[in-house]
Amino acid sequence: MLANPFPDEEDIMFLNSESLADVKWLQIYKEPWEEIKSKWQKTYKARQRDISNQSFPDILLNWPLLKHSAGVTLINIDFEILYPGKENFLLDKWDSFKARILPIFNGKIKDKNCQDLLSKLNNNNFTKDPEDVIIISLLHAILLPLRHTSTSAQAKKRFLKPTIKDSQQSLIIEVQQANNFNPTIDHFASKVRAFGQNLQPLIIRCYFDDSYVVYFNEIKYKFKDILPALDSCFKIFFVLNLKYPMPCKSVWIFIQKYFFEIDTFERASPDVLVLIESLKNNNV
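Request: output the structure for the sequence above.
Response:
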C-alpha cells in the first residue's frame, strides 16, 4: 500500500532503550491519554518495524491501544508522521469537490438505482440519506468495480465482476437495528471470504443511533458524521499497510490520489484518471 512505509535499517538500529521502554509501557497502560500520545509518537519507528515483519493479529497484540475506542487518535498521529501536511486534505477539499462533482454525476450516471439517488441530490431531498453519504455512494457508479480473480477454495479460481452494489457495500454497509450489528458484519464477512478475500476496513452506517462506525478486525471507531469516518478509514489502510477491498478499490484509489495527493505503486483505472482530470477542468 505505502510508497515507503517502513523505517530504514539504519533507523531500526537506533531504536534506543528509551523507545523500547515506551513500547512496553504502551502495552500495559491505557491512561493518561496525553502521555499515551506522546509515547506513541516516540515509538513510530518501532511500530513500523513490526508492521513490516508481523502478521496483523500480532501487530494488534503488540500495540493493543489500537483496539481502544480512541485508537483512531493514534492512527491519525501515525498518518501525520507518514504524510506530514496531508492529514486534513480530504476535509479541506470536500466542499469544493461537491460543487465540481454534481455536473459530472448528471452527465455520467446510468445505473437506475444510482439515478434515483442522484435525483435526491439534485432535489435536495435528504430526509433519510445525508448529502455526503449520497455523494460517496454515487462515486461507485462512475468509478466502476474492476474484474478480478478469486483463488479461494470455495470459489476456486475464476474471474469475478463485482456490481456497483458490491462496490458500495464494501465501503459502507448499513445496519438498521442494534441487535443486527454483529450478524450483519458476520454475514458480510462470510460473503467476502467466499470470494477469496479478507474483510478489510469499512464503514458501518448505524441507523439505530445515527452514527458511523469504522470497523476492522473487531475494532470499532465511532463517529457522528460520515466524513471523519471516511477520512479515518482511509488512513487505517496506509498506517497499517492494508490492501483496499477489490470491489471498491477504484473509489479508494481516487480518494488517495485526488484528495490526499498520494502516489504509490497502485495503478489507477482509466475511470479514476478521467474523473480526476474532469474535476481539475471543471471550475465551479
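The CA atoms of residues 75 and 236 lie 6 Å apart.
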